Task: structure prediction
Amino acid sequence: MFEEYAARRVAGRLDAEHTRLLAEDVTRLRRAAAEDDIGAFRDADMSFHRHVCEAARNAALIRLWRMIESSLWDLHVLGDPRYAGGWGAMAEHHAELLDVLRSGDPDAAGPMFADHAAGETARYLSDGSGPATGPGR
Result:
């Protein structure tokens, strides 16, 4: 739920610094996918979502993310090693998430981030390689 809120709040209001940070996260996701490095993929994935929360400029949201971040690692929710889809496709999906934030349309960004967080990314993966559920938040 907080991912959808953050995306709605950030869509169209993404500053240059967070745009740069998120673009770097996408680059790291792509590199990790190409190198089949699940640890690096998970680090970049965590960083991407942390940066979205920070870009929302909501202190409560940032505190909430910080509280649950370690639990997400422990639960293997981020970058689930059992995910059967293509990691490259998931990296590209994060590029699409960044694009929707840049688009300025909170009604597109919110549901896309909510679906991503719920692991329902297949409809968004441009190459169709993702299963009905993926490595959500």
In short: Residues 2-117 form a domain with the Four Helix Bundle (Hemerythrin (Met), subunit A) fold (CATH 1.20.120.530). The helical segments are 2-10, 16-34, 38-55, 59-74, 87-103, 106-117.
